[in-house]
Amino acid sequence: MAxxxxxxxxxxxxxxxxxxxxxxxxxxxxxxxxxxPGPYPKTPEERAAAxxxxxxxxxxxxxxxxxxxxxxxPKLPDIGTxxxxxxxxxxxxxxxxxxxxxxxxxxxxFGEDRYDPSAKxxxxxxxxxxxxxxxxxxxxxxxAWLENHKFGRPVTLKQYPNEGPHYLFCEK
Length: 172
Known about the structure:
Protein name: Jg7732 protein
Strand content: under 5%
Transmembrane segments: 129-146
Radius of gyration: 36 Å
Pfam families: NDUF_B8 (PF05821)
Number of helices: 5
Order of helices and strands: HHHHH
Number of strands: 0
Organism: Pararge aegeria aegeria
Keywords: Membrane, Transmembrane, Transmembrane helix
């Protein structure tokens, strides 16, 4: 019975066509052209069409500068996933994202387990640098100051109480 299934899978024209379609799509990635941004919009009509394409209003739509190579892709605010409302009923709650919501161009570095540019730091960057450099230079200053002040028990030559033979475990 297993042999019949194998023969049927190999010699069936429809199965071969389906297998070829799967391999062809895996190699060609047939959906990439749908995600490719269009050319940079130069006229107001092109801007309106691009805004509609990305489900934005014309007032919200602002493309990246033309020299960056993003085409008509919109410049979205840098809001990390961790800064979004956790109680909002998202279509994709794991990613905190709704259906047809455009991604940020740097979305691969924004996430709950990654960088969040809109997060408020506990300490300012100046405060962090002050503590870091203070620790490094303080350690170096302590090392330089204590370099000539060795501490520990000083060792001198062994002193014997009286003159005369002393019994050692080795011969002189």
